[in-house]
Design brief:
The complex is a heterodimer of chains A (about 400) and B (about 140). With about 400 residues, chain A is of the alpha/beta class. Chain A is about 35% helix and about 20% strand. Chain A folds into 2 domains: about 140 residues, 3-Layer(aba) Sandwich (Peroxisomal Thiolase, Chain A, domain 1), CATH 3.40.47; about 230 residues, Thiolase/Chalcone synthase (Peroxisomal Thiolase, Chain A, domain 1, 3-Layer(aba) Sandwich), CATH 3.40.47.10. In chain A, the strands form 2 sheets. Chain A has a 9-stranded mixed beta sheet, with helices on both faces. Chain A has a two-stranded antiparallel ribbon with strand order 5-6. Chain A is globular and about 60 Å long. By secondary structure, chain B is mostly beta strands. In chain B, about 5% of the residues lie in helices and about 40% in strands. Chain B contains 1 helix and 8 strands; from the N terminus they run H-E-E-E-E-E-E-E-E. Chain B has a 5-stranded antiparallel beta sheet. The chains are: A alpha/beta (about 400), B mainly beta (about 140). At the A-B interface, helix 4, helix 5, strand 5 and helix 8 of A face strand 4, strand 5 and strand 6 of B.
Chain lengths: ~400, ~140
């Protein structure tokens, strides 16, 4: 394996809007707000930015194709700018572009911006994929929903590990209840109320066994990051955050094609995690990770991610969940800002919103939800279905 | 009665499959070189990459691998069917097939439950392979 970019890149500024139903603000408004915060945080001027990457998933909604809407909105002065799209990893994908640009020496300072105005679709979940998944969609996807695809992950997991629906749903409810609690301490979150385990378990069913509170919110938002080479970070601030590992794994299709996948976990999450840990020099994730923001589009996604990232042993996530291992005061707090559960999932923005939380935590600036003395933070995005996905895993630290 | 749900879009890979369905034959592919039996249809074998392909007729029997019960419709045309079961059925021949479980009470569906194909002719051109419990 190539040497990777461990300790080559530093984040020197970040911005993140409040997430929510932002009917009165356009994607441009959100980008400007996130960008202004990041510029002030980094203490640089717009002219210092050499290149930009722009993550957004549904270009049909609001922003259009290419990076034009980024450069026109921010009035960036004829610099190279690239729009990227990679399902739910789109935000992290734009961050990856910016990191690779400075790591390579191609530029000194780069911007990664992610934005999505999902509420403008007028639809409760994600927009209809139509034929985006290819012409086999009727044969493969039938009348399956996104919640349905992940619900089958839960059904298969419960069956494999001998959990009754009641036992399984209770563990999933703990995940959502924990995130809702963290969301109450997170001023930029969309949903900021406590929700009890009993209320979650008794909520209307969306796709059995998943109920309303097993599903994340749907929101608008933007987030951005400014990066430079690690060796220059001290010129800009005393407390930069360093990129330790940054990996994406995209399925080869073997989950469905080879008939060896058991449908209880997500192979690209495991593979992206392995690659990111190797790049970051992490040999024991359970011992070395301080906290994480994982892709909790559904509660079961978060559960399976605990195991795929080798935090919990296979089949043992429920024990960890019920022991409070992932709670805010637990061993590895997960979704310290409330996660997708409370921020919703404006797709292009989500990955960078997660990095924003790790950045603030690693600087000790996370307010009421601050984790004690964190050293290593992790973010994870999963786009697609459990059987066919794009996954990113990123690892960050506050020392070289 | 007209059928208002989305119809399959046939292409070169799936034409033989849908033609089989029209005759209520569940056609899947077998690699002419390594013998691997596969679904959904593809031009090359995902295991050995051979283009030698034979179409075989599956017995239409299998078991529920995993399932969900949809209480919210993704497409408005499915609204009238709610709640309905979406399942992955493992065919006796090996492949997994995404389908619906019909012909039983929703609360009876379990993982590993034996099922058999139950054809639903939706238009003159198309029949969908759904599955029902083996009595």
């Amino acid at each position: 394996m190539a040497q990777g970019i461990n300790n080559e890149v530093a984040i020197i500024g970040m911005g993140c809007t409040t997430f929510g139903e932002l009917w009165d603000r356009s994607a441009s408004d959100l980008m400007v707000d996130a960008f202004q915060e990041a510029l002030e945080d980094a203490g640089i001027e717009k002219k210092d930015i050499d290149a930009a990457w722009f993550g957004t998933c549904f270009d049909e909604v609001n922003v259009g194709k290419s990076a034009l809407s980024l450069t026109k909105t921010l009035k960036l002065p004829f610099i190279p700018a690239t729009r990227v799209e990679n399902f739910c990893a789109s935000g992290t994908e734009s961050f990856r572009g910016a990191c690779y640009a400075v790591a390579s020496g191609a530029c000194d300072i780069a911007l990664a911006m992610g934005v999505e105005k999902l509420k403008d679709t007028g639809y409760g979940g994600l927009p209809d994929f139509g034929n985006l998944l290819g012409s086999q969609n009727r044969a493969i996807f039938a009348n399956l929903t996104a919640p349905g695809g992940f619900a089958m992950l839960a059904t298969a997991y419960f069956d494999k590990y001998g959990l009754s629906p009641e036992e399984g749903k209770r563990a999933l409810a703990h995940i959502s209840s924990k995130s809702h609690h963290n969301g109450t301490l997170s001023p930029k979150a969309h949903l900021r109320s406590e929700v009890s385990i009993e209320k979650i378990m008794n909520a209307p069913i969306i796709a059995w066994p998943l109920g309303l509170f097993d599903c994340c919110g749907v929101s608008d938002g933007a987030a951005c990051a400014i990066v430079c080479r690690a060796s220059r970070a001290s010129e800009f601030r005393k407390d930069p955050v360093y990129v330790k590992g940054l990996q994406i794994a995209v399925t080869s299709g073997e989950e469905m094609a080879h008939q060896k996948w058991d449908g209880t976990h997500v192979i690209p999450t495991y593979r992206a995690g392995c690659a990111a840990f190797k790049e970051a020099g992490i040999t024991n994730p359970r011992e070395e990770i301080s906290m994480m923001e994982v892709h909790d589009c559904f509660s079961i996604t978060e559960l399976s991610t605990y195991e795929d990232l080798q935090i919990s042993p296979r089949g043992k996530a429920v024990e960890d969940i019920e022991a409070g291992f992932f709670d805010l005061d637990g061993t590895i707090p997960c979704q310290t800002d409330g996660g997708l559960k409370c921020f919703g999932h404006p797709i292009g923005a989500s990955g960078i919103r997660m990095i924003y939380e790790e950045y603030k935590q690693l600087q000790g600036k996370a307010g009421e939800r601050q984790v004690a003395s964190p050293r290593i933070g992790l973010t994870h995005n999963l786009g697609g279905f459990p059987c066919m996905s794009v996954v990113s895993v990123a690892v960050f630290g506050n020392t070289l | 009665m007209t059928y208002n749900k989305p119809l399959p879009k046939i292409n070169a890979d799936t034409k033989e499959f849908w033609n089989g369905c029209k005759q209520h034959l569940l056609k899947i592919q077998k690699c002419g070189d390594c013998g691997f039996v596969r679904y959904p249809p593809s031009f090359i074998c995902p295991r050995c990459h051979s283009t030698e392909t034979e179409w075989i007729v599956a017995a239409g029997k299998g078991s529920v691998y995993s399932f969900t019960v949809n209480h919210v419709a993704f497409h408005p045309a499915f609204q009238e069917d709610l709640p309905y079961v979406v399942a992955v059925v493992q065919l006796e021949e090996g492949p997994h097939m995404l389908t619906n479980i019909v012909g039983c009470d929703l609360s009876e569906v379990r993982c590993d439950m034996p099922v058999e194909v139950a054809w639903e002719a939706i238009t003159g051109e198309f029949s969908l392979p759904k599955f029902r419990p083996v009595l």
